[in-house]
């Protein structure tokens, strides 16, 4: 831990001695840096613990591993330690993978002076984060205020910021940070869709009217998404905003979210998405998740302001970069058995009415096949993502196929159990169990185990 008035420690990883000497010389001239060299990834991981560097500068291809693997390993223990990668060219293949692993920049090996300048700039920007542990005992609390539009990207950006802030000042671990993000996302989406856009009331009326004559769940879900997209462009809905007020202390975070809609009867809202009548429906889980993941939840009398309290002081989490929303990729195809990976954030939001990412990847006959869906790289799921999985499950059941989920991260698996959807969906702990369940056609599910 250092300031630039002290001697900065830079760890350079790789075997290109000529590049090391040139960069090290320039760093020593610019900031009198102490440069440590590690020949490969394993040596670098050990050096981080011993040398406590202020920045890691690594080659793209190491002798024993790809740089992305090393960056992930180091960031699990040192989440605020900045990394930069030196590649043959700025657009080198593999550079994007290292950036996704957590590196801040990809630098060209042909520009030693540019490398040194980038390292100095990054060190100056990161000093505050590296010194936070020394200041944590001085911090007593903070207040933040945001006003956002009915814009999904602003919701995602704000949730990510609040997660990082809470992980930093309240030392949350990965599970607590994940759960906080899910609850905040649900509350903000509820403020936009049910509050400012007033979609919830109309959908509830349609559901009540359709219950007597047989409810078409796909049609209702499509109608909800269509209404959201339409009202994002119409007055008075589009001009409304959501105000977010955050008060953080070491013991707890309080989050107040105020929309500009007509409000609702919070006291009379008794919908239970885990009941036998509702568990297969692909909606109605937002407020249930908020209540389940927050320690205290209350509304103002008008029903347009929710106050949530989150108390989970734990170890700091490792922040991972987010991929695009619901990236599906076929891993392997064996006759009618498909192995599919999903990565990123499993959310639906205001997706187009006819959008079905699983069909887009596999084709129109997907619901008549056996599909093993690997959730290992699913970093986030909300109520709309759970709703999508339930909708897919119903389509597979109707068309003679089978969907089996497996390898869900612990935080995602816990949400499945909170929502009790593990009683409906076919879920196994690993790929081998999923293959057996798809093969023998057993009824019921196997619970996720860590």
Provide a brief overview of the structure:
The protein is α/β, with parallel strands linked by helices and 450 residues long.
Helix fraction by DSSP (H/I, runs of at least 4) = 40-55%
CATH architecture term of the largest domain: 2-Layer Sandwich
Distance between the termini: 35 Å
Percentage beta strand: 15-25%
Q: How much is the average pLDDT?
A: 78
Unreliable spans: 1-5, 314-324, 442-450
- The total of beta strands comes to 15
**Strands in their spatial order, largest beta sheet:** 2-1-3-4-5
Q: How would you characterize the largest beta sheet?
A: 5 strands, parallel
Chain-wise SSE layout:
Elements: E1 9-13, H1 17-31, E2 34-38, H2 41-51, E3 55-59, H3 67-77, E4 83-87, H4 95-101, E5 105-108, H5 112-130, H6 132-135, E6 142-148, H7 152-169, H8 174-196, H9 199-211, H10 217-231, E7 242-248, E8 253-258, H11 286-293, E9 296-299, E10 305-310, E11 327-334, E12 337-346, H12 357-362, E13 370-381, H13 383-399, E14 402-406, H14 410-419, E15 426-428, H15 431-440
Parallel strand pairs: 1-2, 1-3, 3-4, 4-5, 12-13, 13-14, 14-15
Antiparallel strand pairs: 6-7, 7-8, 8-10, 9-10, 11-12
């Amino acid at each position: 831990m250092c300031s630039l008035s002290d001697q900065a420690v830079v760890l350079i990883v790789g075997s290109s001695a000529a590049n090391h000497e040139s960069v090290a010389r320039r760093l020593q001239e610019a900031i009198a840096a102490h440069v440590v060299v590690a020949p490969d990834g394993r040596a670098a991981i050990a050096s981080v613990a011993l040398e406590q560097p202020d920045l890691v500068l690594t080659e793209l291809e190491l002798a024993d591993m790809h740089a992305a693997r090393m960056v992930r390993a180091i960031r699990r223990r040192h989440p605020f330690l900045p990394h930069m990668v030196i590649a043959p060219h700025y657009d080198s293949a593999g550079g994007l993978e290292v950036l996704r692993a957590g590196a801040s920049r990809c630098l060209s090996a042909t520009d030693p002076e540019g490398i040194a300048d980038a390292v100095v700039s990054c060190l100056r920007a990161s000093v505050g984060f590296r010194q936070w542990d020394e200041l944590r005992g001085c911090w007593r609390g903070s207040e933040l205020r945001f006003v956002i539009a009915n814009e999904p990207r602003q919701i995602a950006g704000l949730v990510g910021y609040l997660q990082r802030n809470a992980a930093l000042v309240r030392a949350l671990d990965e599970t607590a940070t994940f759960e906080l993000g899910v609850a905040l996302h649900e509350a903000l989406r509820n403020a936009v869709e049910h509050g400012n856009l007033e979609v919830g009331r109309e959908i509830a009326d349609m559901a009540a009217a359709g219950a007597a004559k047989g409810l078409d769940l796909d049609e209702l879900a499509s109608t909800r998404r269509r209404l959201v997209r339409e009202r994002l462009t119409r007055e008075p809905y589009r001009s409304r905003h959501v105000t977010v007020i955050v008060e953080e202390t070491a013991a707890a975070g309080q989050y107040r979210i105020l929309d500009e809609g007509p409000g609702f009867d919070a006291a009379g809202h008794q919908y239970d998405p885990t009941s036998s009548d509702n568990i297969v429906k692909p909606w109605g889980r937002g407020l249930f998740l908020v209540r389940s993941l927050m320690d205290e939840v209350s509304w103002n009398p008008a029903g347009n302001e929710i106050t949530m309290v989150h108390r989970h002081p734990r170890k700091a989490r490792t922040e991972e970069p987010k991929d695009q929303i619901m990236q599906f990729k076929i891993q392997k195809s064996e006759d009618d058995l498909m192995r599919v990976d999903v990565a990123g954030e499993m959310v639906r939001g205001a997706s187009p009415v006819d959008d079905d990412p699983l069909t887009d990847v596999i084709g129109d006959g997907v619901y008549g096949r056996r599909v093993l869906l690997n959730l290992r790289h699913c970093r986030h799921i909300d109520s709309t993502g759970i709703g999508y999985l339930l909708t897919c499950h119903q389509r597979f059941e109707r068309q003679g196929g089978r969907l089996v989920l497996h390898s869900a991260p612990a935080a995602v698996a816990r949400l499945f159990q909170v929502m009790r959807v593990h009683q409906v969906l076919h879920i196994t702990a690993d790929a081998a169990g999923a293959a057996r369940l798809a093969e023998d056609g057993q009824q019921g599910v196997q619970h996720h185990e860590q």
